[in-house]
């Protein structure tokens, strides 16, 4: 029960959360670096008391953990809705508080609007990431229509004046954008029905000019793969707050009497730099989000898509498998084009059985060959979709998301199946499970290639039900096949979030494998996701999406930032290229056993064209660094490189891979680059390294391991 003057507190290894239940409004007093014990709670309350300005309400309106309009709060309220027009406003009072060592749950009640809210704060002791889960219950006797329901509203420091978001488009996801936090509300709203290319569900607020190594930040991520909304606002009182939650379409959530709805979890991390925030999110995701199989060394993929597109048959695939295996691949993934009626993107989606005209004996010989060469086998699916030209659509036109009387615009010639319907989920489960059983599939590339338009489910908006349906189907498959690895792909990286990653364990980061575009794509992705789940492939010399030509060295080094693999026609590479690929594959294999526990480091650079990223093993004994120049630097020599995250007292042997390709660009290459060197971590982090002359689109790999 609620004692007067109560302060509720959870501590983790590096953070403290303080919530107050003083008075009517529950408040977050602190979430940030660890604080000493509070000697006198009532003194702290008097410190947190707030002034009441003129010309406003006669009482203070502090920022609640669940702000409501009935208290007079004029910023973003957490809940909006009504009961056939009435109960349009809420006033929540604390009903109950429950505390354990790692969690605090506030139960709030509005007896007039007949609504109960439970909001739970869980602070992970190891990573210091805070998870907030909120539930809404209708305690009334008729339906309550919910139009807004935020997962959490967090205050942040007055000194935070910048907001970083990740935005993008197909082929260029996760681009970093900065906005000033001033008088107006900043809003991110995604209504695409998937996590989207455009608005990644996260936002980082922080001190001016915060970067990889400097400035306090508060980063939040919503673990949800549907529609959502974020707002960042400085109120006229000067208080600043950040709010996030699912976005609800008109009439989408009608809460029946006694029914409860869960908000998607919000994950928050307070840190002293982006690198620290990233390392904490990675630690958290590895322990609490990602499937167990992601902890094992990640195999090298060879994916058939850009090698062959739809143009394959058994003979071609067998040759591709051989060529990919000879280049070091460990898992062969047959992409789109293998199922009934699928020779291009106009038909076939929904008919999940092997096409008998191209593969009369099924995929058995292919799979046997893949295994004979020592590789694993993966298969592409796009379960949520259907082409109007398909057996499935012919038999079940009623199975698509649609609005009666309206024509749903096609995207890539396809419509979306209504996964809110149990019959649709059953059909998909049975189709996929039959193939997993028949071919002992190791891995599924689970694709989802369109935005949801007119997402009607039996006359009502159905995005929330769709997302729950996708989660349910994946949960069913992963519990039946716990060793089956599933990748989340959505025209590249349009479905990457901790919601989908509770069920999948790898992301196809982008359809662009142009290594220069990948630098910013992978940098943004890496803020919230660890490298071992980032699909990164070496593509053809001329990137298919951008037409840019790059060296194999640059393509391979950029791919080594993630789960290394191939997206090229290995049948048509030279012996020299094959040898190079094998060499990089060997490097990848050397490090991958510690990468799943590594810390990643972004080295901030003065010249925005120089990209330096490092992965350091948990024991600080091993590390490797990718150094890539995107376009011509503004100085003849690259700026000095100071490494991060090493043990100052350890001695490291530093060796450079790829320097030979730079010989013709300078009269002299620094000695350590050519012959390697053994120096202390302290020298590497303080004095730093003089890099060789590096032209546009060049890349080096630095291996730095304990001597
Ligand atoms: C999407 C994916 C690609 C590929 C194609 C196949 O675009 O992002 O990687 O699988 O579909 O149609």
Commentary on this structure:
The protein is of the alpha+beta class. The protein folds into 3 domains: 6-288, Beta-galactosidase, Chain A, domain 5; 292-385 and 422-451 and 474-595, Aldolase class I (TIM Barrel), CATH 3.20.20; 601-706, Golgi alpha-mannosidase II (Immunoglobulin-like, Sandwich). Helices cover 20% and strands 30% of the residues. Strands 5, 6, 7, 8, 10, 11, 13, 14, 18 and 19 form a 10-stranded antiparallel beta sheet that branches. An 8-stranded parallel barrel has the order 20-21-22-25-28-29-30-31, surrounded by 4 helices. Strands 4, 9, 12, 15, 16 and 17 form a 6-stranded antiparallel beta sheet that branches. The longest helix is centred in the last third of the chain and has 21 residues, at 575-595. The N and C termini lie far apart (59 Å). Bound molecules: alpha-D-galactopyranose. Alpha-D-galactopyranose (GLA) binds at residues 305, 335-336, 380, 447, 449, 489, 491-492, 508, 511.
